[in-house]
Amino acid sequence: QVQLVESGGGLVQPGGSLRLSCRAPRSITSVFSALTMTWYRQAPGKERELVAQITSDRTTQFADSAKGRFTISRDNSRKTVTLQMKSLVPADTGTYYCHTKQYGLDSWGEGTQVTVFS
Fold first, then answer.
1. What stretches of 10-48 adopt beta strand conformation (E)?
2. For residues 21 and 77, is the Cβ–Cβ distance under 8 A?
C-alpha cells in the first residue's frame, strides 16, 4: 500500500503551537494536486477523529474543537500538507495521521505523536 509520511509531533505545554507535515510518497506525487488530504487523530481508548481536511481546490473543513486554532494548507510543488496547530490544549493529545484516497484505495501514514501537558 502507498504510505504517507508525517512529521512534526512532539511535547508541548497548553497554549503552545506545533506544525505537522505530511509528505506524499513518490508513487502518488504525480497526482498529488488532485487529492483530498486529511488529518486524523486518535487518543488511547478513543475513536479516530477527523481533525482537518483540504481538497484539491483548497476547500477546508475542521473538527469543531479545531476551528479557530488549526490551519491546514498544501504545497503541491512540494507534495506536502501542513497542519498548523495553535493554542493547544490537553484534549489535542493523540497520534495524528495523514490520509488520502487514490483510485478508491486508502493511504495512511504511520502517525506522529502530539502530547499536550501541563
1. 10-12, 18-23, 37-42
2. no
